[in-house]
Structure formats: C-alpha cells, structure tokens
C-alpha cells in the first residue's frame, strides 16, 4: 500500500470519527432537548394542577359564601321580625283579655265584633309570617317555654293559669309564656 492509499484510509477514518462525533453531539443535543421538553411539560402539568386546585378552592369558598349570606339573611329576617312582633304582642294580649272578659250580654254589639275581627286578622297575619302561639294550660312546665310567675296549690308543676302565651317564629322562641303552676305534691 502506498502512502497515498494510507492517507486516504486515514482521511476516511478521520471523516468517520468526525461523523460519529457529530452524530454523538446531535444525539446529546436531542437528548438534552428532550429532557428540557419533558421538564417543561412536567412543570406545566404541575402548574396546571395547582391552578385547578386553586379554582376548586375558590369555587368552594364562593359556595360557602352564598350559603353564609343566605343564612345571615334568614337570621336577620328572624331577628327583625321577632323584634317587631314582640312590640305587637302586648296589643294582641290585650285584645285576647278584652274578648275573654267581655260579659255575654255585651258580646252582641258591632264594637265587640270589630274587636274579634281585628284580633283574628292580627293572628292570621302573624301566622302568615310563620309565627305561632301555643296554649300551655294543663301542661307540665318546660323551662325552655315557660316563665313561672307564681304557684298555687295544685298538681306539682302543672300549668293552671296563663298570663301570656308563648310565641315561636320558625324554630326560635320569641316570647316565653308567663304562667302560674301547681306546687302541691300528691
């Protein structure tokens, strides 16, 4: 073999080495680029999950706010209504007393009929506002509903007279009954 042939073979080997070297560099760049893409993708997925979580929390907070506002509106309505009704109830009590103590011979006049219709109109209005009154006579005393004003000899803790009825607005007691109870033990 001549030197010329040897030089050509060496040049081919160098070219092959250069080609392999370039091919290796290209592969390394591709791998590096692939790793960067995968890292960016992983980072983007992570950020997306964080955003989804933030959105879910914001939606839950909004729903909680809506429920709280509705509950507060209802509580405010109950508070205002009960305060107004508490101011009206003494008039209702007076009408009840007037109707119950009016002698029978005076119950036939138009004034008495007007008083009865006024009383029933007020009661219907209160009922339309979900306000109910309850009669306590001959029932046992319940500390949550009754305020004992006095005691008389009778069955122990049985209500024998009621000065004022108790009223309830939905589930809230707005006025306790004022009652007289028995205190005699059998």
UniProtKB/TrEMBL annotation:
Question: What does the UniProt entry say about where the protein is found?
Answer: Cytoplasm
Q: Which InterPro entries match?
A: GrpE (IPR000740), GrpE_CC (IPR013805), GrpE_head (IPR009012)
- List UniProt keywords, sorted A-Z: Chaperone, Cytoplasm, Stress response
What Pfam families does UniProt report for this protein, alphabetically? Answer: GrpE
Annotated GO biological process? protein folding
Q: Which GO terms describe its cellular component?
A: cytoplasm
Give the SUPFAM superfamilies listed for this entry. Answer: Coiled-coil domain of nucleotide exchange factor GrpE, Head domain of nucleotide exchange factor GrpE
Q: Which GO terms describe its molecular function?
A: adenyl-nucleotide exchange factor activity; protein homodimerization activity; protein-folding chaperone binding; unfolded protein binding
Coiled-coil residues are none
Keyword rRNA-binding (UniProt): no
Positions of region (Disordered): 1-21
The Basic and acidic residues compositionally biased stretches are 1-15
Q: Which Gene3D superfamilies match?
A: 3.90.20.20, Head domain of nucleotide exchange factor GrpE
Q: Where is the signal peptide?
A: none
**What is the annotated role of this protein in its UniProt record?**
Participates actively in the response to hyperosmotic and heat shock by preventing the aggregation of stress-denatured proteins, in association with DnaK and GrpE. It is the nucleotide exchange factor for DnaK and may function as a thermosensor. Unfolded proteins bind initially to DnaJ; upon interaction with the DnaJ-bound protein, DnaK hydrolyzes its bound ATP, resulting in the formation of a stable complex. GrpE releases ADP from DnaK; ATP binding to DnaK triggers the release of the substrate protein, thus completing the reaction cycle.
Record family assignment: Belongs to the GrpE family.
Q: How would you summarize the oligomeric state and partners of this protein?
A: Homodimer.
Q: What is this protein called?
A: Protein GrpE
- Provide the species name: uncultured bacterium (gcode 4)
């Amino acid at each position: 073999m001549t030197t010329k042939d040897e030089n050509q073979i060496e040049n081919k080997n160098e070219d092959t080495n250069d080609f392999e070297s370039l091919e290796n560099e290209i592969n390394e760049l591709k791998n590096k680029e692939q790793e960067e893409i995968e890292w960016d993708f992983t980072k983007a997925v992570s950020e997306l999950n964080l955003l989804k979580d933030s959105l879910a929390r914001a939606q839950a907070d909004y729903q909680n706010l809506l429920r709280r506002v509705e509950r507060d509106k209802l509580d405010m309505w109950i508070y205002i209504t009960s305060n107004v009704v508490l101011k009206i109830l003494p008039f209702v009590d007076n009408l009840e007393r007037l109707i119950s103590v009016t002698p029978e011979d005076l119950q036939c006049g138009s004034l008495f009929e007007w008083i009865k219709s006024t009383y029933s109109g007020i009661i219907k209005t209160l009922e339309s506002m979900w306000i109910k009154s309850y009669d306590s006579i001959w029932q046992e005393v319940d500390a949550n509903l009754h305020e004992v004003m006095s005691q008389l000899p009778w069955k122990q803790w049985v209500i024998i007279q009621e000065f004022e009825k108790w009223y309830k607005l939905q589930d809230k007691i707005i006025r306790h009954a004022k009652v007289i109870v028995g205190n005699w033990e059998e």
